[in-house]
Amino acid sequence: MFRQKLAACAAAALLTMTGLPGLNHLNNLNAWAGEMTNVAITYIVDHPAIDAARKGVIDELAEAGYKEGETLTLHVQSAQGSMPTQLQIAKKFAGMRPDLLVAISTPSAQALQSAADGKIPIVFSAVTDPVGSKLVKSMEAPGGNITGTSDQQPFGPTLKLIKRLVPEAKKLGVIYNAGEANSVAQVEALKAALADYGLELEESTASQTAMVPDAALSLAGRADVILIPTDSTVVAAIESVVNVGRKAKVPVFASDTDSVKRGALAALGFDYYKLGRLTGKMAVRILKGESPAAIPVGVLDTQDLYLNKTSAAAMGVAVPDDLLETATKVIE
């Protein structure tokens, strides 16, 4: 430790001689003295729900004293919807040997888990089925080097909402990426729940965000309503689904509340910023020495109702006043 500090002082002296600003001296001195914490965050694609979760993580770290540029070196990179790119990012981040890896979305978590090979702690956010995705052994006792938060939620309340707003609906369309374990698990859960609500499922798949518009068009003549699961590939292009819904008068429901701000008619879902804050709390615990193996997977215990009045009118749906009054947020 003495030699490390001595080397740091020498480095700081060298920086002073070069005339670099004082803040750079401090940041480099901390880094060389081993006082900077290194965290790397990656996610499969950019969209508001993932952005909110990422912000929640970073804000929680800052509140706990891990402030970027002061005590924290933060590396953040999006895969831009490409799984090969995500695998490359995961390999690069694992090779950097940070103090903690953070993944937002199922494919990002799976990529980091494979690249880290059990040697670097990982915390994930917005993973719908952590057990089915083989990220953890169980929700209560994850095991290994990984834990995090899930956005898993029952479909029953959403299906009940759909039948209330569109009582004549018989066929429910769903668009998802069949290559995402998280999405496949959601569709299976949806199939199991549909019978109780008198609905049949019409599926349409999109392996890339660019394929979502065509997937939505294929449902226009087959489905009475469309439900978008928490699938990053599809959510990234939710506007294209909304456009189809408005033109064809097919109501579009979502599983994340940010999609309602972007045009979906309604959603019963989580606040992803709050989910990110919960993920950040777990990250802080790990950085302070706790093992991910012993930290249960976290979930939010409330669902928020978001409604979009403009989209409801465009899609031919009348929203009852009492539902508007109980909504967490109404988009005019």
UniProtKB/TrEMBL annotation:
It holds the Pfam family ABC_sub_bind. It comes from the Bacteria. Gene3D superfamilies: 3.40.50.2300. InterPro entries: ABC_transpt-TYRBP-like, Peripla_BP_I. SUPFAM superfamilies: Periplasmic binding protein-like I (SSF53822). PANTHER family: ABC TRANSPORTER, SUBSTRATE-BINDING LIPOPROTEIN, ABC TRANSPORTER, SUBSTRATE-BINDING LIPOPROTEIN-RELATED. This is Putative ABC transport system substrate-binding protein. It comes from Breoghania corrubedonensis.
